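Progress narrative, Year 2. Work on Cysteine synthase from Christiangramia crocea advanced from sequence curation to structure prediction during this period.
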Amino acid sequence: MNDSILNLVGNTPLVKAQRIITKPGVELYFKLEGQNPGGSVKDRAAYNMIKSALDRGDIDKNTKLIEATSGNTGIALAMIAGIFGLDIELVMPENSTIERVQTMKAYGAKVILTSADDGIEGSRDYAEDKMKSGDYFMLNQFGNDDNWKAHYQTTGPEIWNDTDHKITHFVSSMGTTGTIMGTSTYMKEKNKNIQIVGVQPTDDSRIPGIRKWPEAYLPKIFDPRKVDRTLEVSEKEAVIMTRRLAEEEGIFAGMSSGGAAVAAVRLCNELESGLVVSIVCDRGDRYLSSDLFE
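Result:
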């Protein structure tokens, strides 16, 4: 028994690919972050950012939180804020899927939709302006060390232990970059030869959850020295692989997970031997109103 749903954040399963890659000597494992209670890897960062801010006294029950999000972080923050009895306002582009908006509202958050043309950058600008009024506190997932530290404390150790210390390559989509920064920091301490592979979209692709940021919006927590290699994937490749994950592996996930899997399979095909772990960021049910699975 668990005395709080917060105890279910982390310790997600690691499962071996059965059909997508079948190369002798090379193993590909998927870290199923959709098994977190809020349905994505962002539960880890949201929990650590809110709890750490409360522990330090940066915020209290009277603080109004505001955060820009493309989806999963917002859902996680809405869930965690609700558990701690905090008010939160989430800002996201108006072309976000209805499932994401409704899930945030279900957890008790106020949701503000900004212009789709301005993207997540427009949402970030809106949240920054509101914070300057002095009435709000922004956790700022893009510049908050508690984001990447969540993965240093949990994701990295889980993968290290669950692979019996045999992991050779770690693959992660890059959005806020918290997952790859924290996991890389931990892995390199354990074995500096583990290769950390980041995934970005090609210039003409839009893949929710994976970004190639303009310089002005580059997450402050990102340190390029912690990524050994960056692979680019196209929107078409990500869509096809997301569907394959569901059909061939029984892994129902979003497009950023498909993008990471494209890079992971490409990597596996280069290797003579190795154990590759790829992050499956979330669940596919929050994309059903889109054309991802049509």
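The chain has a mean pLDDT of 95. The first strand starts at residue 14 and ends at 16.
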